[in-house]
Amino acid sequence: MSSLNSPAALSIVESSIPETPQRRHNRTTRIKGRRAGFWVYAGLGVVFIASLFPFYWSFLIGSGDSTTINDPDFSWWPAGNFLANAQTVVNDPAVNFWPALWNSIYSSALIAAAVVVTSTLAGWAFAKLRFPGSKPLLVFVVATMAVPMQLGVVPLYILFSDLGWTGQIGAIIIPAVTSAFGVFWMTQYLRQSVPDELIEAARVDGASMIRTFWTIGVVAARPAAAMLGLFTFVTAWNNFFWPFIVLDRSDPTLPVALSLLQSNHFVDYSIVLAGVLLSTIPLLLLFVVAGKQLVSGIMQGAVKG
Amino acid sequence: MTSTQTRPPAPAAPPHHAEPAARPVRVLGFRQHLSRWDLKFSPYLYISPFFIMFAVVGLFPIGYTAVISLMDWDLVRNSGEFIGLDQYVWILQNPQFWTALRNTFSIFLLSSVPQLIAAIFIAAMLDRNIRAKTFWRMSVLVPFVMAPVAVALIFSNMFGDVHGLVNGILTDLGLPAVPWHKDPFWSHVAIATMVNFRWTGYNTLILLAAMQAIPRDYYEAATVDGAGAFRQFLSITLPSLKATLIFVIITSTIGGLQIFDEPRMFDNTGEGGPAQQWLTITLFLYNIGWGEWNFGRAAALAWILFLIILVIGLINLAVTRALVRDEGARSPKAKKQKGVRA
Predict the structure, then answer these.
(1) What is the pLDDT, as a whole number, of residue A126?
(2) Residues A215, A226, A239, CA angle at the centre, nearest 5°?
(3) GO terms for biological process (chain A) (predicted)?
């Protein structure tokens, strides 16, 4: 460490003597964080390419045919079969693409809506209302975040087969309508964004609890609720383990349908990867529209959490 | 919702409402009674949807898993016979369990350690004053929207033993091809790569948020004192990330030890490899529960997994605390709360 120090130890003295432009530039970078240099952009460029390469790769293979992958004159330029391959996926009776897409859309939307409602209500109570037992209950909620999904799957499966719900989309919605993370998140958010005086003022003016919640809590919670909803939607959409266990192959969600693409003995990767890309398009579109919110949601959750 | 009924009809407060001093002897009117009940019971009403649902789909299954794990479960009769701890004994004596445990840890370490290091460095780059911030931040998060199943299919193809992209490049470079689907270690590397691809960006953003909460004058002072960029990173950035690092490590432990999607999709049989090279605990659980339809054993394995996660989580917490403790003490806690906006 000290060897790193020694050349810079003179920097205070140096500031009084003329600097070369290069040196001045480095110093301002460090102090004010101004203008990142070439290497930062080069590094971020590498990350950018690594993030997008698998998407391009699946397009590349997905636009070829079954021989593309072992073609000796492999080309980095996509061939023209993507739509044909996508059509094969969509028309494959074993995959049930359209039902899977619809199931994914509405189950994820319902789960996201339910999580937002239950989390906002509970978050408001934990953040802003005083009641006996609130602290231990909140600790309990946080502790449940460590419980893995696997711990519940066997009884849930037994329960849903008793009810005759296996194969029903309800079987993947019901277990997902609460989220300990969601409650914790809304609690943290509301605690910081609503001043207690505002609630007291509303109470003094004679507003009931539900009215206070509706006019103050819900309004304040909107940005956090939107992010929680978005986040829950993505997680629900991508979920595989439980849907794979409980759903029928004939009425799946997209990830379950995708998993069937590879289950043949002979795997044609041009079809598989075309299907992968096809199933990812809805979330990519969502990302284009709401990616910015997703980014700031994750970052705010981190600072507040 | 039902408490709408308890709302006082007139929003205007009655005159004596503002005299709390008279409280002990006053006979309350109906309205005040309503208002009191409202105040007392509303909080429980608001948390009840969460807790009721959680009791049904969270607590009950956990307890019931423990019960089933002590049973020999009969799927036809849909009930079981108590056999004590035999299922646990069976699991712990099964060599496949120990292979699965080894694989799970190996994949977990190969994914979490490089991922965390990469995330810290990418976050440090994003923390610089760069142009098009939002664009770069979004670009690291793109992989997160892709389903793990989709990621696994793409990477299984790229890591193909014969015609895979990675082996193609290695052979072109004159290096030997790697047996991704034969050798346990290399299969773990391939699976860990899938996890890293999907999660590095997510953790990067969490760490970036924590970095932005570090007051800039710390760096200014360090620069005046003559500390170089690397030294500042070691002495200011890393210690300030302590709380966030603990959070990231613990969440990735909980998630990482449950890994299922990627190993399941790594080949077309989904059984964890012909010699259990990439059989993980959850994959083993699935094979027992829904391959052999032995729910008692699956439930016992679920509880074992839970206990492992708890133990590792606590060890994580202790180790991370010990490692970053002293340097972290320098920075006051308040600093974290001051959160600079993204």
Answers:
(1) 93
(2) 140
(3) transmembrane transport
